[in-house]
Amino acid sequence: MERLIFDAAALVAIVFAGLMVAGRDPIKSVLALAVSFFALAVTYVLLLAPFIAALQIIVYAGAILVLFLFLIMLLNVGPERPDGVRRPVQTFLGSLSVVVFAGLLLGMLRASGARLPGQPEAVAADALPDPKALGRLLFSDYLLHFEAVSVLLLAALVGAFVLARRENAQ
Amino acid sequence: MTTPPLWLIPAIPLVGFALNGLLGTKLGKSFVSAVGVGAAGLTTVVAYARLIPFVGGNHQPVVEPVASWIALAGLSIDISFRLDPLSALMLSFVTFVAFLIHVYSIGYMHHEATNAGYARFFAYLNLFLFAMLTLVLAESFLLMFVGWEGVGLCSYLLIGYYFEADYAAAAGRKAFVVNRIGDFGFLLGMFGLFAAFGSLNYSEVFWKAAQDPARFAPALGAICLCLFVGAMGKSAQVPLYVWLPDAMAGPTPVSALIHAATMVTAGVYMVARCNVLFRLAPEVMVFVAAIGCFTALFAGIIAVAQNDLKKVLAYSTISQLGYMFLACGVGAFGVGMFHVMTHACFKACLFLGAGSVMHAMSGDLDVRHMGGLRGKLRITYATFLVATLAIAGIPPLAGFFSKDAILSAAFDAPGAGKVLWAVGLATAGLTAFYMFRVVSLTFFGRFRGTAEQAHHIHESPSSMTVPLIVLAFLSIGVGFVGLPPVFGARADLIGPFLAPIFAPIAGHEGAREALPHATEWLLMAVSVAVAASGLMLAWQWYVKQEGRPAERLAAAMPGVYALVAEKFRVDEDYDFLFVRPFNRLSHFLWKVVDVLIIDGILNASAFLVELSGDFLRFVQTGNVRNYALTFFLGLIALLLFVAGAM
Amino acid sequence: MIGPIPLSHVLLASGALFAIGVAGALLRRNAIQIFLSIELMMNAANLALIGYGAALGTQQGQIIVFFVIAIAAAEASVGLAIFVAIFRHTETIDVNKINLLKW
After folding, report:
1. DSSP 3-state assignment of C102?
2. What is the 8-class DSSP label of residue B236?
3. DSSP one-letter code for C2
């Protein structure tokens, strides 16, 4: 049952990701990606990471993607129109490299047989998904990283403000 | 009373140099004169404060270390000064003559237009004095070399004192380059000494050499030859003499101090200082004597046909230096040093007299324009005449005793001693002739210059005449410290004084039998006769017959006369043999090796970089997607590498 | 195995998402879609991290994902600010037309 749900959610994520890439209208792309992210959140729950799933929905889908939407509407970006310029080299090499890359990933996956270093025990279902444990870990072992990221976010905030400011808006 | 330390003697002129060099331009001529002359005077006083007790005492060498200079494993050299009879002798006349010449310079350089030039002159003179005293007082070869190079530098600076004039700058450069050749020899000699003895201190080297002559004798031949090459450069011996005549481009006090009295005798001093080594290398001694003898005659011949007063004196100096080396070469180092001392007095007097004449003649030095100056320049004439008689070897003036001692030492020498004596005697006659020739042309006869020069002629100020008078008296009297043995066993003062320096080496040939008195008298009579006939001949030709016989002689042998007048064309030959090939080589290195090859490689690589940049810049499309694609291709390559490793 | 879900499925899904992201980043001209593709690639990586973390029974995968999300937020804010600045000058977000930085 869980396996079925996982496969379905993954499929939804992949399909909507494809739609995101293929579409010409940026708004539709953002919405497609939002669906893809929701589906990914489902897989996270199934992979015993409910806290990350919540973050995925709140931060990614809820904040970042909404930011994109705001931007698109702010800049009034319409659907992409063909500009009549052909770029055969970029298109050919780009497609080729994607195919090669996908093949390579598949090949490596098959060659490794999804082996893991060591054979872990099956984990008790209630041990992992505890956000409390995660929080404890974050604020103890990873406190420095956590603080560094907070500084990074502050820097990004300031940077974004400076970049987007009108130059004569002193 | 405590005696002043030895280091003070060179230090005082160094301070004078620093003061005049740094502040002289701002402080004016009177300050510069006071500092310059004061430094020379003070150092003379200090030197004599050391000399008088030393000479009065037991003549034991004193070594005073000042500081450690180089301290390495296996090499330890101190800055230390040495007072022994040899350096005492040098010190006595170097300081005193230098002081007199400093005084003279006040009058001579009075017309110098700028304070800067005046200060520069006195600063260099003080620096020279510092270097010369360092050279004389040094206790190690290395410190001597410092002084050696220092006097060379000052010589260069002072020859090129009128550096705005091309000829002065060229003369300075020539002196420097020719001296470099000699210094190269000196350096090689020092390396050899260090390799053989493991030390550069006099006392250690000479002691070891004297202790074990058999062990060191084989190496000493090459070492002494190298050292003598250094002496040849500094003391202007054939073939390295060519710089000294050109060095007359400097101010006359410089010629007197550096290029007659002190610096050029440094080579003789060095050979005398190393007498222990030279005596262990008899073949080099023969070479020294031969070079000295040949130089004496060669320069004497050239001097006969020169018309520039200072050039005559310059060639005369070279000739007299040849005498000194002749003395050293036959083993009579003490006699050589004696001649160094007497020569310093009368040659300085002659040069200063020439400067005084030049002063009166508005800078003209051509004896053909002079004549009859005896009436106007009484003091100059009198002193010049005394010094001329001294250099000509007329008894009882100083030159007679020293030159006679050299000649009898040569006569006494084994082997080719008689030949050396004969050549020396001929040179003595030549010396008397050419010196009296210039005296006749300058001071006798009628004046041959322009009316304007005639109007201008005047005796020099007292700052110039007083040193002349003092030096003239020295030229008369200084010879009496070295009376020949025929005047009694205790007549010779200087010989026994210097004897400890030239002490015989154990198991080596000692002092020779003195000549019988009869022979001694005979030799003296012969040399006096030769000198007197030289004088008389010059008097007859140039005063009585106003130079007509000489003109007839020159006209009879135009080729020979031209050759001598053109100084045997040695400069031209050197130019052809060394200078021009070297210039061509330099030109080749410049145009081909440097411009074509080295610059070519450089320019070609720069051109290649530019060319490849011209093509590679098209990779920079400015399109982000191209960059992303490139980045991703790189990622794939990396993955392929990892996959290949799996 | 994570419970009943095989790790290979997780990795397959992750790889597929990543490849789609790459294709979008390389082939689209619209800067916003390129940016979205980059976000998608990050999510693909997140999926793999969580999958491995679960399979290994450790929370470190989740910790990394936590930081990735935070950095993605920072990146998005700065990136979008850059878009705003560029758009103000050029009136376009077609990356083919933003190519001033060339030879």
Report:
1. coil
2. T
3. B
A1-79: what fold? Four Helix Bundle (Hemerythrin (Met), subunit A) (1.20.120)
Could you tell me the residue ranges of all domains in chain A? 1-79, 130-170
Task: Count how many Cα atoms sit within 13 Å of the Cα of residue A22 in the half-sphere of its side chain.
Answer: 6
How many Cβ atoms sit within 10 Å of the Cβ of residue A136? 12
- What is the span of the domain harbouring residue C41? 7-90
| Partner-chain residue, chosen from C26, C96, C102, that has the shortest CB–CB distance to B629 | C26
Least Cα distance to B319 among B338, B339, B337 occurs for B339
Distances (CA, A) of B646 to A76, A108, B635, C81: 49, 8, 16, 42
| C1, part of any domain | no
Mind telling me how many Å the CA of C101 is from chain A's nearest CA?
Answer: 18
Residue B619 Cα to chain centre, angstroms: 71
- Taking only Cα atoms into account, the Rg of chain B, rounded to an integer number of angstroms, comes to 30
Question: Closest-CA residue in chain A for C15?
Answer: A105
Q: How far is C50 from chain A (nearest CA, A)?
A: 7
* Inside any domain, residue C103: no
**Percentage of residues of chain B with pLDDT beyond 90:** 40
* Chain A interface includes B76 (CB < 8 A): no
Judged by a CB distance cut-off of 8 A, whether residue C45 touches chain A is: no
Q: Radius of gyration (Cα) for chain C, nearest Å?
A: 17
For every residue of B602-626, DSSP letters joined together read HHHHHHHHHHHHHHHGGG----HHH
Q: How many domains does chain C have?
A: 1
CB contact under 8 A, B643 and A108: yes
CA distance A88 to B223: 84
> Which residue, B153, B136, B135, is CA-closest to B145?
B135
CB–CB contact A108 B646 (8 Å): yes
Whether chain A has a CB inside 8 Å of the CB on C74: the answer is yes
Chain C residues within an 8 Å CB radius of A105: 15, 18-19
Which chains pack against B, by 3+ Cβ pairs within 8 A? Answer: A, C
Q: What is the ipTM of this complex?
A: 0.89
Does A140 have pLDDT greater than 50? Answer: yes
Give chain A's contact residues with B (Cβ, < 8 Å). 90, 93-94, 97, 100-101, 104, 107-108, 111-112
A167 — pLDDT class (breaks 50, 70, 90): low
Residue B300 zone, left/alpha/beta (φ > 0; ψ -120 to 50; rest): alpha
Q: Which residues of C touch A23 (CB under 8 A)?
A: 33
What pTM, to 2 d.p., does this model score? 0.71
Q: For B276-291, write each residue's pLDDT tens digit.
A: 899 888 889 999 999 9
Partnered with residue B65 across adjacent β-strands are B80
- pLDDT for residue A145: 92
User: Is the CB of A105 less than 8 angstroms away from the CB of C81?
Assistant: no
Taking every pair of Cα atoms in chain B, the longest distance, rounded to a whole number of angstroms, is 118
| Mean pLDDT for the stretch of residues B383-388 | 93
CA dihedral sign of residues B295, B296, B297, B298? positive
Residue C5 DSSP one-character state: B
Secondary structure of C36-92 as H, E, C letters: HHHHHHHHHHHHHHHHHHHHHCCCHHHHHHHHHHHHHHHHHHHHHHHHHHHHHHHCC
Backbone angle region of B547, left / alpha / beta, with phi > 0 → left and psi within -120 to 50 → alpha: left
Q: Measured between CB atoms, which of A13, A145, A166 is closest to C17?
A: A13
φ/ψ of B138, rounded to 5, equals: -60, 150
User: Cβ–Cβ contacts within 10 Å for residue B427, how many?
Assistant: 26
Nearest residue on chain B to A112, alpha-carbon basis: B646
Counting as contact any 3 or more CB pairs under 8 A, the partners of C are A, B
* Distance from the A14 Cα atom to the nearest Cα atom in chain C, whole angstroms: 6
Chain C contact set for B629 (CB, 8 A): 26
> What is the per-residue pLDDT across B402-413, written as a single tens digit (0 to 9) for each?
898 888 888 888
